[in-house]
Amino acid sequence: MEGDLVSVIVPVYNSEKYLRDCIDSILNQTYKNLDIILVDDGSTDNSGIICDEYEKSDDRVRVIHKENGGNGDARNAGLNAAKGQWIVMSDNDDILHKRQIEILLAAAYEKDADICVGWYRAFEIGERLYDEEISDSFLNGIEVLSDKHLYDDGFIEKYSMILTVPWCKICKSVLYNGINYPKKSRHDDTWTTWKLYEKSKKTTFVPIVLHYWRNDPNSFGRYKFDTSHFEGMDAFAEQLVYFHKLKKQRYVEIVFALYQETFFWCYNRMKESGMDVSLLKPYWQYMKKSVGYIRFTKSLGGKQWIRYRYLVWYKIPKLIMNK
User: Residue 310's Cα: distance from chain center in Å?
Assistant: First the structure.
């Protein structure tokens, strides 16, 4: 394992307040063979200077300075520069458990997997963090993701977020061949991560907290809402078409549920902000078109099958057309 080089990519934008915590947690990993790429995405604060300081102090650190292009564009720049056989990503205000890379890589090797996903814990601003103790028997808890998980609604509901985000996972770098993150999208991971799973011959999950996600009230989705959040539904629509063509019905059911969940999240945020909810009309129309993809199956159940059609044909039009 120690022979494998792991590239750690961190998109950096105006994060001078928290950036050192993030980089230090990467430098202090128990796994040392790292290629750390800090992508300064046109920061207007001291973030770029901080990155340069780390590059001078540790020869594992490389810095890319570029014009602002968004998180996805920064990730692409990091991927293009990466030298490792494996890829790990982190947001610039999060903190990695000191054993994150060691454990994810060990778990991937144990099961001959292309991807290994870990668990996370949110922490509040001002909270003092301590790495949680991890038993050396952690390999006994590795799960190979399979149809058992796919048909477990509780698992999907609990873990769908961590399975989608780019952080707290390790992926073979070859999986990224031909896959790019979209520029300027707030939902760059929703467009992309599922494509990695489609290329992976085996994916494992380690139910251990390996990543600390900063619960910042000024972060994504908590500031003033705008219509760029609609892109989440566009990303799910691409998945719906893909899985429908492949006749992967359970995937269709899961993605349609996520599409509708995102629709109502956008609707509620728009109502709170006093926005014109009729802007959601094209997304309602797409649901009318695609609800036919949802069949009456054992995994879905008749009650949910009926509920989807009630929402699409009766409830939603009344909400967005102000009737």
Answer: 31
Average confidence score pLDDT of the chain: 93
pLDDT at 223 over 70: no
90 and 38 housed in the same domain: yes
Share of the chain above pLDDT 90, in %: 84
Is 302 among the domain residues? yes
Place of tokens 């003033």: 224
Q: Is 278 helix (H, G, I), strand (E, B) or coil?
A: helix
Domain holding 257, by residue range, is 227-320
Claim to verify: residue 280 and residue 182 sit in the same structural domain: no
**Alpha-carbon Rg for the chain in angstroms:** 21
SS3 call for 260: helix
CA 51 to chain centre: 24
Q: Which amino acid is at 260?
A: Q
Of the three residues 215, 235, 261, the one that is the final residue of a domain is 215
Predicted confidence band of residue 128 (pLDDT cuts 50, 70, 90): confident
Per the listing, tokens 């720049």 go with 77
Tell me the CATH number at 50. 3.90.550.10
Backbone dihedral angles phi then psi of residue 62, each to the nearest 5 degrees: -125, 145
Q: Picking from 111-120, 121-130, 244-253, which range would have the lowest pLDDT averaged per residue?
A: 121-130
pLDDT at 89 over 90: yes
Question: Average pLDDT for residues 109-126, to the nearest whole number?
Answer: 93
Q: Within this chain, do residues 14 and 162 fall inside the same structural domain, yes or no? A: yes
pLDDT of residue 221 exceeding 80, the answer is no
Shared domain check, 281 and 192: no
State the total domains in the chain.
2
For residue 222, the SS3 value is coil
Residues 247 and 204 in one domain: no
CB-side neighbour CA atoms (13 Å) of 254? 24
At residue 197, what is the residue type? Y
Task: Give the predicted TM-score (pTM) of the model.
Answer: 0.93
- Look-up of token digits 């961590």: 162
Residue 267 CB neighbours (<10 A): 19
